[in-house]
Amino acid sequence: MSTLAELRDTIEADLKDSGNAIWSTAELDHHIRHALRAYSAVDPQRLAAVVACTVDEREYALSDISGALIDVTDVWFPYDAAAPEYPPRRPPWSLLNGALYLEAVLAPEAGESLRVFYTAPHTLSGLDSASATTLDAAGEQVVALLAEAYAAFQYGASTINTVTASGWTPRHLREWAADRLALAQQELESIRTRRIRQQDTRTHWPLE
Questions:
Q1: Residue of 64, 3, 73, 76 lying closest to 44 (CA atoms)
Q2: 86 φ, ψ to 5°?
Q3: What's the burial of 27, exposed, middle or buried (CB within 10 Å: 0-12/13-18/19+)?
Q4: pTM above 0.90?
Q5: Whole-angstrom Cα distance, residue 16 to residue 20?
Q6: How confident is the model at residue 201, as a pLDDT?
Q7: What percent of the chain has pLDDT over 70?
Q8: Which of 18, 38, 4, 29 is nearest to 187 (CA)?
């Protein structure tokens, strides 16, 4: 998987600005960050964590599970990683002011744990101190397309009624950016559709 520097190089090449004559690395990083958020909103990381329970405590801070959490998708309680039950027990739960609240009939006892399934934003190695890239190749392509579109739109807006030495005209930039954005949106829609189908497959058993 690519690092921030490698993805930025790809974007600079597509923008024909490898020398950063038009877009600074800081500007490109801003657009990459924006693109990463947009991609994560459609296809976030899907993670799980085991949380040690406190006796009689029903409320657990989500910040203890993940520093950047989007949503909780499922909770298993009680959960024993050494001997997980099948099917797992899924108690009622709710999210209250950034905390997970267990609404199980019985409160946690000593030694019990809960397993939380959640979504989180993707990270790109080198961006905002991230140490790993969690995007796959398809995700990287979408992020690059989005970042390129954002960069072109930004520069096009700033050069309206001006003459530039870059070879890009405002109209050319808008058209090029719109094409990149359309490609990215097609990929995002394809990903969204695939995720919905995967979820349907998991939750609906075929009839025999």
A1: 73
A2: -135, 125
A3: middle
A4: no
A5: 9
A6: 53
A7: 90
A8: 38
Residue-range domain boundaries for the chain: 4-43+123-202, 45-120
Local structure of residue 111 (DSSP, 8 states): T
Query: Quick one: CA dihedral 171, 175, 180, 184, positive or negative?
Result: positive
Flag whether pLDDT at 6 surpasses 50: yes
Query: CA–CA separation, 104 vs 92, rounded Å?
Result: 6
What's the rounded Cα separation, in Å, for the pair 42 and 203?
20
For residue 29 the two structure tokens come to 């990083």
How far CA 51 is from CA of 59, 65, 67, 71, 80, in Å, comes to 12, 7, 14, 16, 11
What is the pLDDT confidence band of residue 149, given thresholds at 50, 70 and 90? very high
Sheet holding 71-76, edge to edge: 45-52, 113-120, 71-76
User: At CA 45, angle to CA 91 and CA 206, rounded to 5?
Assistant: 60
Q: Kindly report the length of the chain.
A: 208
Beta bridge partners of 49: 116
